[in-house]
Amino acid sequence: MKKTLMIAAAAAVMMTGIAATEAVASPISKCKACHNATKDKVGPAFAKVVKAYGTPEALAALWDSGFAVADRKVAAEYPKFKKKAKIMTGQYKHLIKGKDHLAIAKALFASVK
Ligand code: HEC
């Protein structure tokens, strides 16, 4: 049941992605379907990400290196998120890979302050 919901959420995000390609307000606007600054949603609160990585450069470096599950700090700390790593791998390929990694990481950090 949970899995079905997550797949539905991922599909909804992908469809939104197509509809919203012309109105990209922020490099992290689409992330908000699953992430909140301070509360866990489908994915971890961005505050947890900021705490785990410390700097936008460190997070951007992880994306540069291919974002292997074994290298993810939040997933390493929280087993419940590690179980959902595949969802984020799909989002990485769609929304992050090949784009300006540092700009996305900076927007993520800025959203928490
Ligand atoms: C469809 C839902 C979904 C969307 C959209 C999404 N994420 Fe995630 N994200 C997750 C889930 C689930 C996790 C937990 C699994 C993991 O940590 O890999 C996660 C984890 C993360 C992590 C922590 C990785 C770690 O474990 O250290 C970062 C950073 C992140 N997301 C950034 C983003 C950014 C930036 C975007 C938008 C460009 C985004 N996410 C969009 C679901 C999503």
User: Helix fraction?
Assistant: 55-70%
Number of helices: 7
Largest sheet: none
Strand content: under 5%
Any ligands, ions or cofactors bound here, and which? heme C
Instruction: Please tally the β strands and state the result.
Output: 0
Helix/strand-derived class? Answer: mainly alpha
What does the radius of gyration come to?
13 Å
Spatial gap, N to C terminus = 35 Å
What's the rounded overall pLDDT mean?
89
Provide the number of structural domains: 1
The string of secondary-structure elements, in order, is HHHHHHH
Written overview of the protein:
This protein has helices at 2-19, 46-53, 56-64, 73-77, 79-82, 85-96, 101-112. The protein has 113 residues and is mainly α. The chain has one domain (2-112). The radius of gyration is 13 Å and the shape is globular. The mean pLDDT is 89. The site of heme C has 29 residues, from helix 1, helix 2, helix 4, helix 6 and helix 7. Residues 9-10, 13, 28, 30-31, 33-35, 42-44, 49, 52, 59, 72-75, 81, 84-85, 87-88, 91, 95-96, 104, 108 line the site of heme C.
